[in-house]
Amino acid sequence: PEEMALPPPRHYCIVKNPVKRDADGNVELDDKMQVTLLYGEEEIRTEGPPFPLYPGEVLKLEPTALSIVPPQSALRLGAIRDFTMPSKEGEGVVKRAAGDEWLFVGPATYIPRVEVTILDTMRATIVKPGTALRIRARQQMKDSGGALRQAGEEWLMRSAGAYLPGCYEIIEETVFPMVLTERRAIHMRAVRTFTDEYGVHRRAGEEWLLTMKECETHIQDVNEEVVNPDLGICALSRTQYCIVRNPWDESGKQQMGRLELRRGEMAFFLKPGEELVGGKTKDVIVLAPDEALLLKATQPFTDVGDVQRTPGDRWTVVGPTEYIPPVEVEVVKRYGAIPLDETEGIYVRNIKTGAVETVIGRTYLLGPDEELWEKPLSENVERLLAFPQNDSKGVKLSEHADFVPTLRDRTKVVTYRTPHNSAIQVYDYRQKTSRVVWGPGLVMLQPDEQFTILSLSGGKPKKQNQIHSLSLSLGPDFMTDVVVVETSDHARLQIQLSYNWNFEVDRSNPEDASKIFQVPDFVGDACKAIASRVRGAVASSTFDDFHKNSAEIIRCAVFGREDDGKMKEKFVFPNNKLVITNIDIQSVEPVDQRTREALSYSVQQAIEITTKSQQEAARHDAERKGQEAEGLLERQKLKDEIAAERARKDLLELQAESSAVQSSGHAKAEARARAEAAQIEMQAMLEHAKLESQARKIRAECELEEQRKKHEAELDYQKR
């Protein structure tokens, strides 16, 4: 026998292929008296009396405890077949179709049905104060508030407490609030048209700010998105201002394209669409007493003092002051006064009239219609002004092609220090006049003035445009040139000449002063004129004559002679007051090779003849001096022999005297020695006698003393 199935209280079991029962609960039998089974079906049986398992029935699930649904929880149930069940209120029935879902909310004990399966266990989510749950509908349904929700629709559950979602609801996330402070705002944008929790109707795409004035915390709705969760405040101090583009007016409309000036002290949040011009706040412009602002109006407006400004007007604001430019004003530039010494200046141009003037030796502040003007100079003048060794002797620019002048400030007055004993010419192109400045002095160019560049010849022989200079040396100085001449007998010679020159000009006479610059290349002109005269004079002389009298011929050709035949002392160029005072012939060399060799040979022969004559004269003089020296030597020998004889005679006399003295001295010394020896011996004997006498005396005294003490001792002994 098999045991009967007995589910304990609050347990259930599942029987597979249960028997078929009639309306009264009795088991139905077939015609063979066998129980009728419902194959493929299942039956759930709960607590009750024990029941046997009929043949064919299978206990699919052993007795199992019923599911207890705790509070704040629910079972999400799903129908696997169509069936009807009593309603919760106990009135009527509820029809369930396969696929329907519903919740079995606790606290309760769930008794299972074969038509129902447990899909999930739902637990309530705690909504803390100030937070919300973002919920999404899985299909069309009504939420806990009775609102109809479409599939995929999302909404917020803001009520604090435990929330148990419906069977068609999915909790996406917990939405935490965003905290607003006095220095923090939130930039929001509507995703779709809706009415927010503050009762404001928002259209899709609309943007707005949430500040502490609206709320302290904000929970983002599903119909809005956060553009900037941490929008900082713009704080302006008393010394700051800013310009806001696209501001909002008082009615809440944005003024696109407009600008608004906001001055401190104030604090504000930039509303959606607003932006700071320049991206930051600006400091109030503080002008010192020597500073100014150049301003230009971009729009018509009324300035301080009811001054009407039209677009394009320019004016200045001079310090000391604080200035905040309105939105209709453009700050062209900020500049300061330019301090100038007595030897400094600037070029100032009036932009309305175009006139350029020079300001020298005072502090100057540009006006609204003035600007600094750059004076153009030629490249050669720029290089000459910047050259470190520029003086009146000029510079060979061709030798310094790689010299790069330092950039100068073109708005400053061009100055040049004229060297001592020199002059410089400045030409005014507007007035078509020139002036000469004598050195040492300082030249300051006016706007329409330019330097006169001197291009002088240089080298040997002279070549044009070799030396460039701004100043002209007045001398005295010298210049050297090489001239090729030809004598009347067709001998070509190369002569190197040096000329001493100077300018004789009356500085107080402007006409004389201008004459020294009338010849652009006075060096080349003077050298050509002198060379022409020298060639003419040499052409009329033979080579031999010129070789003997070259200095006189050249000086006479250059200076000329007076009416009385006396040679003049100077050669004057009346066009530019140049005076040649002296000519030095440094060298004369034949150009033809054979002539040069012949001249060299003749000079060599002359040198050899002169050398030989000097050698003969020297030899004769040496022989004469040699004979005189021999005679003097013989005489000196004779004198030396006489002196030697005299010295020999004196020597013999001295030797005789020495012998006599030596013999007498020896006898005296022996006698004296014997006397002294005897005296010493006597003194020694005397001393010996004295010492012996003293010894005997001492000995006697000792004996007497000894006898006395002996007697005293005997007396003492006898007295005892």
Describe this entry's structure for a reader.
The protein has 720 residues and is of the alpha+beta class. The chain is 24% helix and 35% strand. It contains six helices and 52 strands. The strands form 20 sheets. Strands 26, 27, 29 and 30 form a four-stranded antiparallel beta sheet that branches. Strands 42, 43, 45 and 48 form a four-stranded antiparallel beta sheet that branches. A four-stranded antiparallel beta sheet has the order 49-50-52-51. Strand 46 (454-458) and strand 47 (463-469) form a beta hairpin.
Provide the fold topology.
Elements: E1 11-16, E2 42-46, E3 58-65, E4 67-69, E5 73-79, E6 83-86, E7 93-96, E8 101-105, E9 108-110, E10 116-123, E11 125-127, E12 132-137, E13 141-142, E14 148-149, E15 154-157, E16 161-163, E17 169-175, E18 178-179, E19 184-190, E20 194-195, E21 201-202, E22 207-210, E23 217-218, E24 224-232, E25 234-236, E26 240-245, E27 259-263, E28 266-268, E29 275-276, E30 282-283, E31 285-287, E32 291-297, E33 301-303, E34 307-309, E35 314-318, E36 321-323, E37 329-336, E38 345-350, E39 356-360, E40 370-372, H1 379-386, E41 415-418, E42 422-428, E43 433-438, E44 441-444, E45 449-451, E46 454-458, E47 463-469, E48 471-473, E49 477-486, E50 492-503, H2 510-515, H3 522-539, H4 543-548, H5 550-559, E51 571-573, E52 578-590, H6 593-719
Helix pairs in contact: 3-5
